Automatic annotation (TrEMBL):
<feature type="domain" description="Nudix hydrolase">
    <location>
        <begin position="1"/>
        <end position="126"/>
    </location>
</feature>
<protein>
    <recommendedName>
        <fullName>diphosphoinositol-polyphosphate diphosphatase</fullName>
        <ecNumber>3.6.1.52</ecNumber>
    </recommendedName>
</protein>
<dbReference type="GO" id="GO:1901909">
    <property type="term" value="P:diadenosine hexaphosphate catabolic process"/>
</dbReference>
<dbReference type="InterPro" id="IPR047198">
    <property type="entry name" value="DDP-like_NUDIX"/>
</dbReference>
<dbReference type="GO" id="GO:0008486">
    <property type="term" value="F:diphosphoinositol-polyphosphate diphosphatase activity"/>
</dbReference>
<dbReference type="InterPro" id="IPR020084">
    <property type="entry name" value="NUDIX_hydrolase_CS"/>
</dbReference>
<keyword id="KW-0460">Magnesium</keyword>
<dbReference type="GO" id="GO:0005634">
    <property type="term" value="C:nucleus"/>
</dbReference>
<dbReference type="GO" id="GO:0003723">
    <property type="term" value="F:RNA binding"/>
</dbReference>
<dbReference type="GO" id="GO:0034432">
    <property type="term" value="F:bis(5'-adenosyl)-pentaphosphatase activity"/>
</dbReference>
<keyword id="KW-0479">Metal-binding</keyword>
<keyword id="KW-0963">Cytoplasm</keyword>
<dbReference type="Pfam" id="PF00293">
    <property type="entry name" value="NUDIX"/>
</dbReference>
<dbReference type="GO" id="GO:0071543">
    <property type="term" value="P:diphosphoinositol polyphosphate metabolic process"/>
</dbReference>
<keyword id="KW-0378">Hydrolase</keyword>
<dbReference type="GO" id="GO:0034431">
    <property type="term" value="F:bis(5'-adenosyl)-hexaphosphatase activity"/>
</dbReference>
<dbReference type="GO" id="GO:0005737">
    <property type="term" value="C:cytoplasm"/>
</dbReference>
Length: 163
């Protein structure tokens, strides 16, 4: 908490990593997927990002929980600090998946036409990077391509409240 009781807001992402869609290889998506039985959302996010994007990292804060009433599932969106990038990974070898780093604003534009809910994840990330009332804390990060990115994991079940 900042003085005065306001929570600090940390801007930690300059770029996000998107992967090509397995169904539509010319479209970019936020990496993520389903949870295995008995798997926690954070563990699923780390596993999915390793399989789909070929990166390892340290799981950061939960960015939000998004719910799809039609599909009856909940998506947990996390920030992941990338610590290792593999040359070849499961989905690159098996299905030719590609990955690319985008500035947050550019990623939102790329996602808005075919994956608007993924763009919504990044809008929330971008809002967390906006200065508000002098309470923002913006740490200095190296300006490289391995800073951070967002991933998600989905869990089936009856939706509750969107956070």
């Amino acid at each position: 908490m900042e003085p005065g009781g306001s929570p600090a807001r940390y801007c930690i992402a300059k770029k996000v990593l998107l992967v090509s869609s397995s169904r539509h290889p010319d479209q970019w998506i936020v990496p993520g997927g389903g949870m295995e039985p008995e798997e926690e959302p954070g563990g699923a996010a780390v596993r999915e990002v390793y399989e789909e994007a070929g990166v390892k990292g340290k799981l950061g804060r939960l960015l939000g929980v998004f719910e799809n009433q039609d599909r009856k599932h909940r998506t947990y969106v996390y920030i992941l600090t990338v610590t290792e990038t593999l040359e070849d990974w499961e989905d690159s070898v098996n299905i030719g998946r590609k990955r690319e780093w985008f500035k947050i604003e550019d990623a939102i534009k790329v996602l808005q036409c075919h994956k608007p809910v993924h763009a919504e994840y990044l809008e929330k990330l971008k809002l967390g990077c906006s200065p508000t009332n002098g309470n923002s804390v913006v740490p200095t990060l190296p300006d490289d391509n391995s800073t951070l990115y967002v991933t998600s994991s989905q869990t089936p079940g009856k939706p509750s409240t969107v956070r």
